[in-house]
Design goal:
The protein is mostly helical and 252 residues long. The chain is built from 11 helices and no strands.
Length: 252
């Protein structure tokens, strides 16, 4: 009888552990993995579309020029002397799916699981919230994220240590193109990307769908910033019309 009771408790404990593990996996897929995937897609889709686009002759009139040298001479020089386009692309992909990207997604999962209470069915639900709720959350997250990004970026320009050890890597690309968006040190990426997104999520407490949409739009917008195209249409679709937001020309 004692042995039977012990076996029963062991089975119950095992079921509880399996249930806990299952709920954690669901939470990580919802709050960690999915936003990480949409961020990667935001980078890859925009970069792979815009790289050939900015090389088209009709785009040359809209490209921001650096000094006296033609833009593409500077791009070629950078990709020859600093990092090839393929190396920049590979670095960007590994940044998102590497250790720092995974740690950011785990931290975001823990945070959002505690801030937004969803049961297991809601976690895996494909239900999309109303357009008004999505729009309000996106605007709030953009404003908060910009605040965090600004200070994460400025801090690295003010600190010799942060500049030399982390931020200088991104600025080594003297004439950026879309693939160079994520040619960035992981610590720099965390200060400018991961932490601002986490801060924005803390304040807005978005629906999982909205968070995924935001990471796609945010990384996609950052990739557009690196096209060097000064087009009113790009500023429109990337929400540059919101208060205190700068256009592509300012970023370059």
């Amino acid at each position: 009888s004692t042995q039977s009771t012990g076996n029963h408790h062991s089975k119950e404990m095992f079921r509880a552990l399996v249930g806990l593990e299952s709920s954690w996996i669901q939470a990580w897929v919802t709050w960690g993995l999915a936003p990480n995937i949409t961020a990667t897609l935001g980078y890859l889709l925009i970069a792979l579309i815009c790289e050939p686009l900015i090389r088209h002759p009709s785009a040359s009139r809209y490209l921001i020029q650096y000094g006296a040298s033609p833009r593409w001479e500077e791009v070629t020089k950078t990709q020859t002397q600093v990092a090839s386009a393929w190396l920049q692309l590979r670095t960007g992909i590994l940044l998102v799916i590497g250790p720092f990207g995974i740690l950011n997604s785990i931290f975001l999962t823990i945070l959002m699981t505690n801030l937004v209470q969803l049961n297991s069915n809601e976690l895996m639900s494909l239900e999309i919230p109303g357009m008004k709720e999505v729009a309000v959350s996106i605007v709030v997250m953009l404003v908060v994220n910009d605040f965090g990004l600004y200070w994460g970026h400025r801090l690295q320009h003010e600190s010799d240590f942060l500049w030399t050890n982390f931020h200088a890597m991104h600025h080594s690309i003297g004439s950026p193109t879309p693939v160079s968006t994520l040619y960035i040190d992981p610590t720099d990426s965390t200060l400018q990307g991961g932490l601002p997104i986490i801060l924005a999520s803390m304040i807005a407490r978005p629906h999982p769908f909205t968070l995924c949409l935001f990471t796609f739009l945010r990384i996609g917008e950052n990739t557009l910033n690196h096209t060097g195209l000064d087009l009113p249409l790009l500023n429109l679709v990337s929400f540059k019309w919101l208060p205190l937001r700068a256009g592509v020309a300012h970023h370059m």
